[in-house]
Amino acid sequence: MNDFVVVANRLPVDLHYDDNGAPVWTPSPGGLVAALTPVLAQHHGCWIGWPGTTTEAPEPFRTESGILLNPVSLSQSDYEEFYEGFANATLWPLYHDLIVTPRYHRNWWDAYQRVNQKFAETAAQVAAPNATVWVQDYQLQLVPGMLRELRPDLTIGFFLHIPFPAPDLFRQLPWREEILTGVLGADMVGFHLASNARNFLHVVAHYSEHDVSGTVSVRDITAHVHTSDDRQVGIGAFPIAIDPTPFLVDIDKTEVRAELGNLDQIILGVDRLDYTKGILQRLQALEELHKAGMMPPRTVFLQIATPSRERIDHYRRTRNMVEQAVGRINGRFGSLGSQVVLYQHQSFDRERLVKLYATADIMLVTPFKDGMNLVAKEYVACHGDGSGALVLSEFAGAAEELSEAFLCNPFDVESIKQQLLAALLASPAEKQARMLRMHEQVISHDVNVWATAFLRCLTLG
Ligand code: ADP
Ligand code: G6P
């Protein structure tokens, strides 16, 4: 039995099989996994999640860092209707402000309920009496309510890793009341930003029978929902952060520079290949700067794009458009010996990523909407020497804390161009002043501060 249990759609590792049919585990993608892994290792906690395949789930096992992994299997229809359907073609676009149109299908909703019930039952089986169970993210919003029904003795937290949309958007969801009731099964609900928490309180006040009191604070609980079954649910904002340790190492920057042809400026993008990340728009900005002859010579843009949700229509389309744009830009502005855009559609190991972050002169992070964006914080963590410059979308949650970045509006290509040029042309002194202030913020508000603040509020009520 476990005193501390995390329930997330994904385990921190994905199961694959090699050519001989032997199981191979690889790190799974995304910010949730990056942030929670060090927290779980510290608590020697139990992590319930899906191993990323539709084959039978393996038995629970402990990782080298002491995390007990408890796999939950998804059938092929769960995968299609729950994961690709309700989670990533209904909720994901709805919560990211309708960058693409959400699809509402009753059979996807049925699958969402079914899979949430499965996760809740697994948590109910493995949690010790009076344990703390921390449920994560948009895929599992019904789990807190279902788990409370099964195990009223538990202390239950819920954290949303993506934005919570404006009330007028959330209102579209045919199952909005059920989602609110599910989330409010928790004792405490956390969001990245106070604005997300306020959106949530607004919809609770307008579309449920529960009462709202107080105002939202950051890293504390001063707002509550009084539920119709007479419970108090704390609501707060807890901006997620990184474990900076792996990013604070000394890097020989000449190595990556040499590999990329000893150019003057390396501009970097690192994202899951998701339409929310604005990869196409940043390519458009680069293309226009090249066309106008405004791009400094001997500059390369390196885009690392992790494969993500590849069978979903809009992901496939985004990948096609990005790859066409890369080809077009290189075809026109590259030469036989050198390309102006380097594109890698693959996952990189941490060590390699750190070298790229540390060497890049400019990091381009231009999402249309992002709950936080840990890539921006990881880049800043690698630049404690004051080098580098971050061009960051105003619509990334990280922009609230990293306000010294070169902030751009990703819906306005001119704005991306201007901020990229400003970063390229800024004096070393200006860049250093901006970077050091952001570095201090990223180091002092690390993932430990985030998890401790949330868990303190959860367990102390
Ligand atoms: P999201 O959670 O939406 O993917 P974040 O920026 O919050 O976005 O987190 C992404 C995480 O995934 C970061 O920890 C980053 O280091 C990691 N990551 C992104 N792209 C790659 C890649 N190509 N290879 C390895 N890790 C990656
Ligand atoms: C974001 C979500 C996570 C998700 C990750 C990767 O970070 O907030 O919940 O795990 O993306 O997406 P995937 O669909 O591959 O799990």
UniProtKB/TrEMBL annotation:
<dbReference type="GO" id="GO:0005829">
    <property type="term" value="C:cytosol"/>
</dbReference>
<dbReference type="GO" id="GO:0005992">
    <property type="term" value="P:trehalose biosynthetic process"/>
</dbReference>
<protein>
    <recommendedName>
        <fullName>alpha,alpha-trehalose-phosphate synthase (ADP-forming)</fullName>
        <ecNumber>2.4.1.347</ecNumber>
    </recommendedName>
</protein>
<dbReference type="GO" id="GO:0003825">
    <property type="term" value="F:alpha,alpha-trehalose-phosphate synthase (UDP-forming) activity"/>
</dbReference>
<dbReference type="GO" id="GO:0047260">
    <property type="term" value="F:alpha,alpha-trehalose-phosphate synthase (GDP-forming) activity"/>
</dbReference>
<comment type="similarity">
    <text>Belongs to the glycosyltransferase 20 family.</text>
</comment>
<dbReference type="InterPro" id="IPR001830">
    <property type="entry name" value="Glyco_trans_20"/>
</dbReference>
<dbReference type="Pfam" id="PF00982">
    <property type="entry name" value="Glyco_transf_20"/>
</dbReference>
<dbReference type="GO" id="GO:0004805">
    <property type="term" value="F:trehalose-phosphatase activity"/>
</dbReference>
